[in-house]
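Re: weekly structure request thread

Next one in the queue (444 aa):
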Amino acid sequence: MMAKFSVFQLVVLVVVLGWPVAVNGQLSHMMHNWDCVACETNSMLAGNFGHANNFIFNMSDLWWVDTVARSYAAVAMNDILGSREYNGTGENGIVTVSRALKAVNPKLKILWYMSAHRVSDNPFVMDQFRNHPEWWLKNDDGSIAWYRPPAEGQPGRPTLDLSQPAAQQWFANLTLTYFRSHEEAKQLCDGVFVDSASFRNPSAKISAERSQKIFDGKMAALHMAQETFTELNGGEVWGNAVLEAHSIPKTPGVTWNTALQHFNGAFEEMFGSFASQNRDGTWNVTLMERCFESVINASNAGHSVVIHAFPGPSTSPFMDRGTVDNRFHVSSWAGPVRVPNTTEGCQQAAAERLVESLAPFLIVANERVFLSYAWFYSIEDGYIPCKAGVECGMPSSWYPEFTHPLGPPGGPAQRNGTVWTREFQHASVYVDLKDRHASKITWH
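Done, posted below.
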């Protein structure tokens, strides 16, 4: 067993991305410039991925480490190099990959994925969680609100009840217990990305009053985490489902402004797809407008925002493409057009549909807004171009739009009804929320 931090010794530690932040208000100082979307002098890319089941991404051939480190401003990682099997002995795979990434690019910011509902998938965490049944969320009738109920001899997965102060403290400091020392954590961990940081607990049958109490507990835990990483190295805490336009009307009092009082970054997971579109694959104008406004308002208020955009009118279910030993995931598409069946078809589709995501991104972007573009959440799903012989969800070279000179914007986007336009030094951007296919970037 490695010598690690005790959870209860870490009450005064958390993560934010490399610069000092004001804890009161949780402002982010992770910023890009306007040279390009991704090139040698700048990156607006921030990924959230793992590669749990693909043997091609290993530590013997580090081509993918070099590509990620030189191309991204920040990455949040999950399930890398067997990290799902980690039991507290030896070194977690995310630590191993973080060390390799930092060796190539010390400025790359690396965050760890966590879920405010299911916490993590590895035995190291789950054994601790299962040993504290008082932290398990209960339904109003007293029964366990399982995240995943017991089945076929497998133990159930409880849901974390963050209304419990001890659970908040454990969750807020959990990431740092993976490291051998304070100094190792300081050098290799730049923050946490917390999934399910929203109001709802979909697996639970609980009253609105208890839901509010649990949400308040989530915010308290994320605030503790922010304080911990601010003290550690000025790190970043991102929350998912804070900006999702479809959820805001259903959760009174939960908006970018109320949630981001407690931590400094937001992850917008459904930008232009899933619940922000109609069943026929067209954009839902009202929800897209709300999404635009939330990203603009949150980033202008000093918070980092990571937009995850999918190729085309993406929706569930997700499917596999590629060969048996080298597969990647793709989403389905809403509407009459179906996702291609071949690797080459999916790669071409990702390239052809890029402007439907990149143009809206440029409409809302400021220096604190970053882009993630891929079919799903494994590295092979389109986050990087893969070397020859490796099947991935994007073409074998970077999208040319990423390296075009961009230049600073002349000002904020202009709106005329459903049409949004914006001028950059070297590009003109056009988006009509009534017609996703009309999205256009004119380079000049």
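The two ends are 58 Å apart (CA to CA). The first helix runs from residue 63 to 71.
Next request, please.
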